[in-house]
Amino acid sequence: MSEPIAMADQDSIIDVNDVSMIFNIASEQFNSLKEYFIALMRHELRFKEFRALDHIDFHVRRGEAFGLVGTNGSGKSTMLKVIAGVLKASEGCCQVRGTIAPLIELGAGFDMELTAKENIYLNGSLLGYRKDFIDAHFQEIVDFAELQDFMDMPLKNYSSGMVARIAFAIATITEPDILIVDETLSVGDFLFQQKCERRIKELVDSNNVTVLLVSHSIDLVERMCDRVCWIEKGKQRMLGPTAEVCAAYKRLGA
Fold first, then answer.
1. What ranges do the domains of the chain cover?
2. pTM (2 decimals)?
3. Which of 45-49, 145-149, 198-202, 230-234 is predicted with the least confidence, judged by mean pLDDT?
4. Strand pairing class (91-96; 227-232)
5. Residue bearing the bigger pLDDT, 250 or 7
6. pLDDT at position 182, please?
7. HEC profile for 59-123?
8. Which of 22, 47, 113, 215 is most buried, by the most CB atoms less than 10 A from its CB?
């Protein structure tokens, strides 16, 4: 059974209160922009409502590792983007207390024409780091990413796994209040994945960092998370301890 919907309390760092995300999709296809604007001017344009999220409600406690699971297109990543402030909820509200280090889309905040070194400073500034802070931690970032010999190479020549290494190293160089991870750990070799897992566990064990994890790897969710919310086709199916929710989710494909 799922746990009762938790009420926000003083230890809550993320409050998702009855959140819905609604997109309007054109109900017919047009072969050109001209046809689209003609239909628009004639008030013949019709839309159908698509609820990517439908009345989602949960609260995440400070220092908790919280997972979101669901099949492809279920609304997990949309939920993360609402929490990160990338999207504004159509209905309900989402309140976040503290700083966020988002690892949502690989390459976001990077300029692929610049070198890896230049991108460390660029991405770091987007996360709110001062130049002197990046100067002081630059070697630490490079060492964690294990890309010492590639710092002067344009990022466009990097593999997705190499980009993931830099993104993760920058985002976790300090202790954010909330670390949002969306499938980032599925990219790259298994040794670096294990290294990232150890770093996340260190952050969680410090009791200062809250981790919000989305992954198609249920094994990873079971290893990392304290509680899990299962979202399916935009609706909240279950909320509770990791073992219970993951067991129910696994039965979906049985």
1. 12-99+176-252
2. 0.78
3. 45-49
4. unpaired
5. 250
6. 81
7. EEECCCEEEEECCCCCCHHHHHHHHHCCCCCCEEEEEECCCEEEECCCCCCCCCCCEHHHHHHHH
8. 215
Going by DSSP bridges, is the β-strand pair 100-103/178-182 parallel, antiparallel, or unpaired? parallel
Alpha carbon distance 172, 102 (integer Å): 10
Tell me if residue 51 falls in helix, strand or coil. Answer: strand
The Cα–Cα gap between 140 and 143 comes to 5
Q: Which residues fall within 8 angstroms of residue 150, CB to CB, at 6 or more apart?
A: 116, 158, 162
DSSP class of 5: P
CATH class of segment(s) 12-99+176-252: alpha beta
Predicted local confidence at residue 7, as pLDDT: 47
Q: What is the pLDDT of residues 123-162, one digit of tens each?
A: 888 878 899 999 999 999 999 999 899 999 999 999 888 8
Question: What is the sign of the dihedral through the CA atoms of 196, 210, 166 and 158?
Answer: positive
Query: Which distant-in-sequence residues (6+ apart) come within 8 Å of 187 by Cβ?
Result: 106, 160, 161, 164
Query: Between the CA of residue 93 and those of 78, 113, 153, what are the distances in Å?
Result: 14, 38, 43
CA distance 74 to 124: 31
Instruction: Specify whether the CB–CB gap between 182 and 80 falls below 8 A.
Output: yes
